[in-house]
Design goal:
By secondary structure, chain A is mostly beta strands. Chain A contains no helices and 11 strands. In chain A, the strands form 2 sheets. In chain A, strands 2, 4, 5, 6, 9, 10 and 11 form a 7-stranded mixed sheet that branches. A 4-stranded antiparallel sheet of chain A has the order 1-3-8-7, with no helix packed on it. In chain A, strand 7 and strand 8 form a beta hairpin. Classes of the chains: A mainly beta, B mainly beta.
Chain lengths: 112, 112
Amino acid sequence: AAGVIQSPRHLIKEKRETATLKCYPIPRHDTVYWYQQGPGQDPQFLISFYEKMQSDKGSIPDRFSAQQFSDYHSELNMSSLELGDSALYFCASSPFGRDEQYFGPGTRLTVT
Amino acid sequence: KQEVTQIPAALSVPEGENLVLNCSFTDSAIYNLQWFRQDPGKGLTSLLLIQSSQREQTSGRLNASLDKSSGRSTLYIAASQPGDSATYLCAVEETSGSRLTFGEGTQLTVNP
């Protein structure tokens, strides 16, 4: 069965650089969620999209932005990276009318 | 604001033991609750999802119960195996399609 695809799987950036993380949801899933998991912490919700519109916003820094495209894939753009942005970034998707969120393998971002 | 707590933070048991992991949440008006497994540095694997109208769900050696009125859920693992060693996270969804709020997780070690 198809799963959520995230790219890249690993990313190393320097402070003040920008990064773009991509998420490809399971086919026919129209809702995408982004979570950030710092070292030794639980995942924290960042932002979600339903049918290409932002549906909810959590503790996402103003330096971050995201969008969902017409093919339902989503991108998380991160600018002016800080050391504290080093984390595992998860994308999850769910189909309309269903509740279970299916998580991707994550992108590990390291900021040096 | 919903808060999710998991007890214990870490648990070490010998192989073959039955064990219980606990999850509590402060706002009982939840839509559903999910249990996840996470191996070190890896993604989140969904184990069980319990709708708010349900009392329990079973999958193989796993059984999850939900007592919404008291704000508690338990994950029961029967006949534990070394391969069960991982961090177990519970997460609540307050309304359909909304964000997940995670607990801090229980790190389980099953010793051969």
